[in-house]
Specification:
CATH topology of the largest domain: Jelly Rolls
Strand content: 35-45%
CATH class of the largest domain: Mainly Beta
Radius of gyration: 26 Å
Structural class: mainly beta
CATH architecture of the largest domain: Sandwich
Distance between the termini: 39 Å
Number of strands: 31
Shape: elongated
Length: about 425
């Protein structure tokens, strides 16, 4: 809960919420209000659980508007403390120039703070996430009964947390800003006699996909789920590897936020293309893709060479094949619409290539069957032929200018599999 007497420097804000964090060794952002996307010369506040170190903390951070930060941190105990599985009442109140953090009604620390905490429609209020310079940190757990009050310092000392949702609604000074959740099945909150306010499970996709666990030799990094790679509009799918190997989206493939972000290609005229020429180099490619039924169920190529006859994973109604200017593996299994993490490790000098479907090297491969790597990559069709379109979805593409190890491939697979429901 946040409550304050106004939106300016004399504000007495009160922020109230109830939360159950899920305790991986990460930081959980409960609520942030930022007057921009950076941390200097701005007014902002945040309330967070911080589980990154051996000691778990509940922390309130307030900016001074000129690059400085004031903190109140409350020690929740060691990582063996199972209390995080219970509901807790968290409140922040500013009365005059004193900001106080309350945990289950107990004053656990305060600071002097009188800087304007205002934000408007051009600023950012985020619940469950903090995004700075395109990088996000997320809350994972459950939240309920979020309340921001303008005009009242609701608590001035330790108190007994209320047993009903949002008592004593404030209307005289602009009113409460209350966020409620509607759920199909009501789950009781301990001590909540009303049991009528609902809760929300917060299960963001972990971890932050703006980075990958294997970066050595990475020359293409596309991820539709990361704002730095795709903002949600435009015809450029940006490479996050730092090499500028951006892809061009042709004929407006559909962006979807499902699976934390993906592109849908219609199987008629939509595709994406870009990337370096690695046809005569050792390299590795990882793509997360599937055939779909969003439009016409066309079953051509999904990931293919843009300037040569190379394809990875899907072709001609098959979902586990690999052609590197010569067949390495051509399965006869029936097609599916499941997500696949397809990968190829290509040793050009040694004339050896290995194909993987969901981290398994497919049996019966002809490792010397191929002869070249991709000369650029086309997604949604065969670029060199300008045909063989697919009704398909692609979310992530990683290209390395070296042969990644099988251990590194497993690390990449484990990093992404839960996002796409792959076991």
């Amino acid at each position: 809960m946040i409550s304050q007497s106004s939106c300016g420097s004399s504000a007495q804000p009160t922020v109230l919420l109830r939360a159950i964090p899920t305790p991986p060794a990460l930081s959980h952002l409960l609520i942030t209000a930022l007057a921009g996307y950076g941390f200097t010369d701005e007014n902002w506040y945040k309330i967070e659980y911080d589980f990154r170190n051996a000691t778990r903390l509940l922390r309130l951070s307030l900016s001074d508007g000129s690059g400085g930060v004031s903190l109140v941190s409350y020690d929740l105990g060691s990582t063996t403390n199972t209390d995080v599985s219970e509901w807790h009442h968290v409140a922040v109140v500013r009365s005059g120039s004193t900001a106080t953090l309350y945990y289950d009604g107990v004053d656990v620390g305060s600071m002097t703070h009188s800087v304007d905490m205002a934000y408007d429609q051009n600023r950012t209020l985020e619940i469950g996430r903090q995004t700075v310079s395109g990088t996000s940190r997320w809350f994972e757990g459950q939240l309920a009964d979020i309340r921001i009050t303008k005009g009242v310092a609701r608590y001035t000392g330790s108190f007994t947390p209320p047993i009903s949702a949002f008592p004593n609604r404030e209307t005289s000074t602009g009113g409460d800003h209350v966020i409620t959740f509607t759920v199909a099945t009501e789950t009781a909150h301990p001590g909540d006699a009303s049991d009528n306010d609902g809760k929300m499970d917060w299960r963001p996709f972990w971890p932050d996909y703006s980075t990958v666990p294997v970066t050595s030799g990475l020359v293409v990094h596309l991820d539709a789920g990361v704002e730095a790679s795709y903002s949600g509009s435009g015809s450029t799918w940006s490479d996050m590897s730092g090499n500028g190997n951006n892809f061009t989206l042709t004929n407006s493939p559909t962006y979807s936020s499902d699976n934390n972000g993906k592109f849908q290609f219609n199987g008629v005229n939509q595709y994406a293309s870009g990337g370096p020429n690695l046809s005569t180099s050792s390299c590795s490619t990882v793509v997360i893709q599937r055939y779909a039924t969003n439009n016409n169920s066309a079953r051509g190529r999904v990931t293919a060479g843009n300037g040569n006859n190379w394809l990875l994973g899907m072709h001609s109604n098959k979902s586990s094949v690999y052609y590197a200017v010569g067949w390495v593996t051509l399965t006869t299994s029936s097609v599916d619409t499941d997500w696949h993490i397809h990968a190829a490790r290509e040793n050009y000098a040694g004339d050896s290539r290995v194909f993987y479907d969901n981290n398994v090297a497919i049996s019966g491969q002809t490792n010397t069957g191929g002869s070249a790597g991709p000369n650029g990559i086309s997604l949604g069709r065969w670029g060199n032929g300008g045909n063989e379109y697919s009704d398909c979805e692609v979310a992530v593409l990683l290209v390395y200018n070296r042969i990644i190890t099988t251990v590194e491939l497993t690390t990449i697979f484990d990093f992404y599999k839960s996002r796409f429901g792959i076991s």
